[in-house]
Every structure is written in C-alpha cells, then in structure tokens.
Amino acid sequence: MNTAISRDDCLALDQADPLRALRSFFDLPKQSQPTIYLDGNSLGALPKATPTAVAQVITQEWGQDLIQSWNKAGWFNMPQRLGDQLAPLIGAGHGEVVMTDTTSVNLYKVLCAAAELAQQRHPEKRVLLSETSNFPTDLYIAQSVCNQYQLRLVLVDASAVKEALTADVALVMLTHVNYRTGAMYEMAEITELAHRVGALTVWDLAHSAGAVPVDLREANADYAVGCGYKYLNGGPGAPAFVWVNSQVLGTTTQPLSGWWGHVRPFAFDTNYEPQPGIAQYLCGTQSMLALTAMRCGLDIFDHAKTLGGMTAIRKKSLALTDLFMALCASRCAAFGLQNVTPTDPCYRGSHVSLAAANDGYAMMQALIARGVIGDFRRGDAAGEPDLLRFGFTPLYTRFVDVWDAVQQLVEMLQNAEWKRPEFNREQVVT
Ligand SMILES: Cc1ncc(COP(=O)(O)O)c(C=O)c1O
After folding, report:
1. Are 130 and 314 within 8 A, CB to CB?
2. pLDDT digits (tens, 9 = 90+) for 336-391
3. pLDDT in tens, 274-284
4. What does the alpha-carbon distance between residue 183 and residue 352 come to, in Å, rounded to a whole number?
5. Averaged pLDDT for residues 205-212
6. In this predicted structure, which of 193-202, 304-313, 396-405, 420-429 has the lowest mean pLDDT?
7. What is the pTM of this model?
8. Could you tell me if 166 and 138 are in contact, meaning their C-beta atoms sit under 8 angstroms apart?
C-alpha cells in the first residue's frame, strides 16, 4: 500500500468502488459535523428501509390484522425464512439456519448438543478447548456447559490452538474473527485438525457473517452461531443465528426444548418431540419487530449479490483495512499507537485495532468528539493491551472516510485533546 495516498486518491477509489451504491441504503448520522462511523463491527448502521418496515408490522400486521398475522403475514416461519436468506453468506444450505434468540443463548444450545454427542462418541474425551482471548460470553457459557457435562475448559493462545488439539479434546469452540485483534482463523484447516483427533467444532461467526467469506459446508464444520446486529445490520439486540451440520443435527437435541422447536407445535402434545430440521433449535415465541428489522439488514445483502456479493465485499474490506493500517503506520506510530491486527490478508477480519500503552479510552472519547466513532476494549492483567478498535463495514464505509478518520486521529493526538478531563470519565459502555 502506498502511504503517500492523498484524499483525492481516496475519492477516486470511491468513484471506482462497485459497491458504492449500497451506502444509499443506510440512514447514516446527519449531525452538524460529519460523522464517520467505524463501529459497524459492534452495532451496524440503520438501513433506510427499517423504520417503515417495522412501522408497517406495528400498525397493519399487529394493529389491524392482530393474531391473523401469524399466518397471513407469515410471522410464524420468519426465523426459518431469514435463516435461508442469511445462509449463502456463511456457506450454509437452504433449511440449515434459523435466526433466533441471542448468540449467547444459541451458543449454549449448540455446546450442550455437541457435548452430548461427544459423550456418546468418545466418553473418554474430557476437554473443551478454546482461546484465552475469546469473547467473554463464549467463555462464560462454556464454563457452565463444562460444569454440566463434567468437561474441563482449556484455554490457550490463538497461536497454540493447533498443537493443543490432542486426543483428549472433545470440543473446540472458537470465534472465527477475534473481537479484540481482528485476527481470523483458517476455519477449514482447524476443523480438519479437530476432526482428525475426533473433536467436534463450534464456531462463533459474530465478527464474520456479512464481513468475510465463510463456507461452513466446505469447511465441514459441525456447529456455528453468530450475531445479527453487527455486520448484518439487524439493529440493537437483533436475532442471532444458529447452524448445525446436517450430519450431526439429528444425533442429539438441544436443551431448550420449547414449543417452537416441537415437530407439531399446535398439537399441544404433553411430550416434547423435536422437529427433524434446524427448527428444533427454536425455543419460544420470537419478536416479529426484531425479525422484521433483521430482514431489512439482510435485504441489503441481496442487493450486494448483484454487485459482486461476498467476493466484492471481502475485496473492499481488505482494501479499507489495508489503507487504514498503512496510514496509521506512517502517521500514528509516533504517538505510541501500534497496530495489532494481522497484516496478512489471509488472517484478517474486517476491523483493525491499535494498541495504546496508556490513555486509550480517553483517546477514543476525544476522537468520538471529533465525529469519528470507533470503540475501546480494555486489556487485562495477563498483558493484553488496551485497544482502540475501528470497524470497516464495506457496505457503507468509503475510502475517503478512512482518510478523514486518520486525519482526525492525527490532529487529536497532535493537540493532546485526550488529556481533557471530560474524556477521562469512563461510561458504562466503552
Ligand atoms: C464474538 C462474540 N460473541 C458473542 C457476542 C455477543 O453475544 P450476545 O449477542 O449474546 O450478547 C459478541 C459481542 O460483541 C462477540 O463479539
């Protein structure tokens, strides 16, 4: 990447961008100073279609048609329909995905199902392997599943996962793109190594779906879950998704055996009998308002398909992150900000994190005050550094946004604006 790239060069890149039309599908902030939103890896932006679509469900489908909408508006099958809409983005087949519940809840379901299966196949295997810097909810859920199934949770650094795949591993649970560093695993390779030792794989695609190409079937993964509110733009608290390989789906059941997963929910049987397909991963009544907003996020990917789909999205994502990393390396290193995201595109997701020795939180607050929105993730006692995180959603982020964001970052650092007291008061959500 040529770091002498000018703002005009970035404008030219935007002109040539095959995905440029997709930005107009979003309602981006219109404050007096321009906002550059680089936090779509945490909460995706609002699709323009969402307010009208949700209002229609409220006023017409709920307000006028009331209970009839379960049939008339097709409410009841929304989790399956949206699962089918999402499926091509993660290399899943028709009828293999449902959108439902949260990532944490879905993780609990798949980990229990996987633990049952592991116990049937290899009762002597007692280890659930994961990564030390996996997202905390994944580790917390894994801890309770380990207690339930008398498994031992073993956590290793990302670089040690392959060698930790030994004969005693029953399950390996990994987040495909790390929430802190943006580092990405080679899913097919890890899955193959896991299968060689007889372990099952559970993948969290929270930072992958809609951002990087994923091929669950090609990788022969066993279970996967992920978020709807990040790169898929389904809105705060959007329904998450769950996928199970058809080879393992019928072998065990998930523990939250609610009536939506029953084979005949309206027979109101006394005994639970799971649906044969992925709908067995549903539990109870879903929010139609949330699913409607989720659909609006997924609809934009249908448009993206006509402009090159995930291949074009990945190409732009790498170009945006390359540009950001190159500009930061040449302009921010003097201020002690160090890139921790892999420069090798094979191992990089769609966000970039800069390690800050001190005052990272205040730096991010000062940058947000200048209209550039990223976020902050604190390090830990084990030596993980504090991080300034910047997400690049190719559907609405422009090359010129990257250039302007770095310019704002440099000016903020040069003026030492982060030293002001108002930027040093920590809020609940960082
Ligand atoms: C990797 C990963 N998994 C899960 C979650 C969140 O799960 P939930 O939607 O259940 O809060 C996040 C949130 O940022 C995440 O980064």
Report:
1. no
2. 899 999 999 999 999 999 999 889 999 999 999 999 999 999 988 778 899 999 99
3. 999 999 999 99
4. 9
5. 98
6. 420-429
7. 0.97
8. no
Return the residue whose CA atom lies nearest to atom 16 of ligand 1.
179
Instruction: Identify the pLDDT of residue 425.
Output: 86
DSSP assignment, residue 202? E
Query: What domains can be seen in the chain, in order of their start residue?
Result: 7-48+309-424 (3.90.1150.10), 76-302 (3.40.640.10)
Report, as residue numbers or ranges, the catalytic residues: 135, 204, 229-230, 389
Angle value at C-alpha 55, between 50 and 58, nearest 5 degrees = 130
Q: Which atom of ligand 1 is nearest to the CA of 42?
A: 14
State the amino acid at position 375 in one-letter form.
D
Helix 399-414 and helix 360-369, axial crossing angle in degrees, nearest 10: 120
Crossing angle between the packed helical segments 288-305 and 309-331, to the nearest 10 degrees: 90
Ligand 1 pocket: which of 43, 107, 179 to mutate (most atoms within 8 A of CB): 179
Contact 238, 227 (CB under 8 A): yes
The DSSP symbol for 262 reads B
CA distances from 216 to 131, 235, 247, 296, 406 (A): 20, 25, 13, 24, 35
* Predicted confidence (pLDDT) at residue 96 exceeds the cutoff of 60: yes
**Percent residues over pLDDT 70 in the chain:** 99
389 forms beta bridges with 353, 375
Task: Tell me the CA–centroid distance for residue 138 and ligand 1, in Å.
Answer: 8
Distance in Å, CA 209 to ligand 1 centroid: 12
Distance 426 CA to ligand 1 centre (A): 21
Select from 100, 108, 133, 135 the residue to mutate for testing ligand 1; criterion: most ligand atoms less than 8 Å from CB. 135
Q: Which residues line ligand 1 (CB under 6 A)?
A: 102-104, 135, 137-138, 175, 179, 204, 206-207, 227, 240
